[in-house]
Amino acid sequence: MADSILEVLSPHLDSNGPPPPSSSRTSPSLSTDATALKYMNRLTTLSLDSLKSTEPQSISHSAHSTLLSLQALSNRSHKAFIASSDHLSNLQGLIPSLSQEVKKLQNEIPKLDEEAVRFSTRYSKAGENPVLDRRRKAMQLSRNVDRISDILELPALLSTAVSSSAAASGPAAGSLSTNKYSTALDLYSHIKRLQTLYPDSPLVNDIVLQAEDAMKDMTTNLITGLRAQNIRLAAAMRTVGWLRRVAPELENPRGNGGSTSDEGAFGALFLVCRLASLVSTLEALDPLRELADQETKRRTEAPSSEQRSSNSAKTNAWSGGQQTERFLKRYIEIYREQSFAIVSLYKNIFTTEPSSDTELITASISGLKTQPPPKQAKKIDPLQTLPPTVATFPIHLVRLLTDTLRTYLPNVRDKSSRESLLTQVLYCAASLGRLGGDFSMILTELEAEDEEEGEDEESEADGELVREWEQVMRKHRALAGKLEQLTNGPSSAANATKGLLPVSS
């Protein structure tokens, strides 16, 4: 029904409506317009009166509403309409330019493909390229930056450990100092291991140089520790052990493998440090030494024996040597304690060949020449290996004491005081005698040395001194024999009379 009405009304609507579209624009006809069909179906449902009265008003009202809606829409979106219109007008020129750009892109694709192939060929992982090598190294450095920072901190950690161990050294902080030195040695061993693994690395070589400077400071601290007063055996053994690890080249300084013992140069270093400690301790007696020097000066400037009786009333007459006695008594006490401690520490720290150490010490003091052990004859060294340092060290110790006695003992004129001092010297000789360094017979040579100097009065005094020394030794041996006979029997008494057993004071 609606189709039929549309066919009837179609000529009237086309003639009264807008002009038909051009051939290039196609629009649907009224017969196919869904809105028109829907409206025609609605018209068929209305009566004739409604068509004449209400329908025109409804259509007018709808047209007015639609007009108002279009006006509101135009007011709100006129900018978008204008922009759309502009773009639509430019679309005709943009489509040809887009076509040209597409053609140009098609022409450039082969060149792009060639460049991609060339880049992949040049920078492939299979070939060698400096740019890739630098990039690879930079990436590897970025991945290992934490490890490198840890390696760079090793010299600072080593220096801190060495400095803190030196600050913590002392009798009250032995364990702390031990831990710090052990940590420093472990760090240095790790650095040397890195040098072994990476010998061509400039970074590792620089770190090794800094570590060696820190270890030089540690060696200085250890040598200073060996010069400390009243050092214990455990501390001395630890210090020597650390020195062996810090300076292994001192194990065999000659580099020919001809060492007669395991001490290397450490034995001489230890004895020199302990001797320096002994000398510094004896230097503390300088105030008493100055008083003794004044008595020596007064003794040497005193008048001869013929004029002494006439000038006995003078106030500047020389006294009996009380200050010298005080000085010598304290000197001998320190010497006895320190000398025995030095040699005993040496013998406990450094392992030497059995039964040869004591013989070498005794022979060096008595002036005898000891035949070398049989196995030393097989050495190829043309200069022959040197004996242990302890074999010649007691000579210097004894000379230090004898020079002091030769200088100051004549000042003491009181016989009982001299006997007391000589008894102290005898006890000192007996202490070293336990270690094979008995020097009791050396003082008997003072008389011969003084006679060669041509001083009659001094030689006479020294001869009296030697006789007193011999008497003290006889009394000492007799007393030792009696004591040993009461305690251990006649066999021990025989040894005591030979002066081989020490007697306590």
UniProtKB/TrEMBL annotation:
Localization, UniProt: Golgi apparatus membrane
Keywords: Coiled coil, Golgi apparatus, Membrane, Protein transport, Transport
Recorded coiled-coil stretches: 88-122
Superkingdom, natural source: Eukaryota
A biological process from GO: protein transport
Topology in membrane: Peripheral membrane protein
Pfam families registered for this protein in UniProt: Dor1
Chain segments carrying region Disordered: 1-31, 293-319, 486-505
GO CC, one annotated term: Golgi transport complex
Biased composition (Polar residues): 302-319, 486-495
UniProt key word DNA damage: no
Family named by the database record: Belongs to the COG8 family.
Name of protein: Conserved oligomeric Golgi complex subunit 8
Native source species: Talaromyces proteolyticus
Higher taxonomy: Eukaryota, Fungi, Dikarya, Ascomycota, Pezizomycotina
